[in-house]
Amino acid sequence: xxxxxxxxxxxxxxxxxxxxxxxxxxxxxxxxxxxxxxxxxxxxxxxxxxxxxxxxxxxxxxxxxxxxxxxxxxxxxxxxxxxxxxxxxxxxxxxxxxxxxxxxxxxxxxxxxxxxxxxxxxxxxxxxxxxxxxxxxxxxxxxxxxxxxxxxxxxxxxxxxxxxxxxxxxxxxxxxxxxxxxxxxxxxxxxxxxxxxxxxxxxxxxxxxxxxxxxxxxxxxxxxxxxxxxxxxxxx
Amino acid sequence: xxxxxxxxxxxxxxxxxxxxxxxxxxxxxxxxxxxxxxxxxxxxxxxxxxxxxxxxxxxxxxxxxxxxxxxxxxxxxxxxxxxxxxxxxxxxxxxxxxxxxxxxxxxxxxxxxxxxxxxxxxxxxxxxxxxxxxxxxxxxxxxxxxxxxxxxxxxxxxxxxxxxxxxxxxxxxxxxxxxxxxxxxxxxxxxxxxxxxxxxxxxxxxxxxxxxx
Lengths: 236, 213
What we know:
By secondary structure, chain A is of the alpha+beta class.
């Protein structure tokens, strides 16, 4: 039989097959995920190592005079415990000791909102001076050339040579840290902002204020735990 | 016109450096060109990262060109480009945390650099791997060169330094506007003016030479 049966539909124009498209997208998707995962696997050890080195360097930079360190954590109920392993999402505090094993100060991690993204900084606190004695930016996505001056500008970094965070008779911070306009710093608890990087300067000041208000009283109350830390185990 | 293969491949490479320079002639990829060129070192790092992504994605697009149907080509190209950007980001982090911090948010934005998608669509998808590689390498280096031109001017005037070294005396009062976004537009405008002036002068001279013959 050579003729079409009238009740049958005439053969429709061949629709473009979707198989090549699915094949292409799925194939490329698999290829790309493999590429990303293998790069991640390949670079992860180096990145972790570099990040730890960077942190370690920063700790000794914000605690001038320290030659060894020990890692502690502050539990949510305000206790000091030794930090073990790879626990994430806890407030870490690094205690730095000099050659004689005396406590030089504490390096404390702080984070908060910067201009574009989360800003992570590390500051050194000296219990003896009751002051911040150093500050380093650990992670930032501040605008290159502008906001990133908070890491480089010598005038700005000079703010953190001795920034007052002393406690009053109620064991609370007497004068919370405040940012002020460039060139108008009059008190030891004020931060002289950078012209042209006001938002990032303020962000650093706010992160420090919030963190010191919360942690410095806890740290000062438990100072003995840090001072004794050099005697207990947990390596250099 | 010379048509031997060696000459053609040199031509694919050279055109991106000068005659079809992505920034100064095609005016493509303006987002990173304006955003990260406030210092020479940022310009170099961004240029090289873009070159890496450009070369790798052009080669992959070229080798898969008969496998990718027309209807889904853009989605496929973007997937490939985004993958290599992620790869580049991991490598930059592994090479130097400092550099990664400096480039910040801009590395991820290489994905939307229209230069890369443009080369995938206009060249790599129509050519074999070797020409695609040469084209991408030439365009990438031309892009890097243009970023360095912009970064050099902006860092010198806006900060008084070049690659971090003090060039002007301590008394130099930097024009902060040059490292702000506005400065990017000013220096790009100045460079485009210079390039177009050079181009039209060359055309005038050629015309004069032809007339006097």
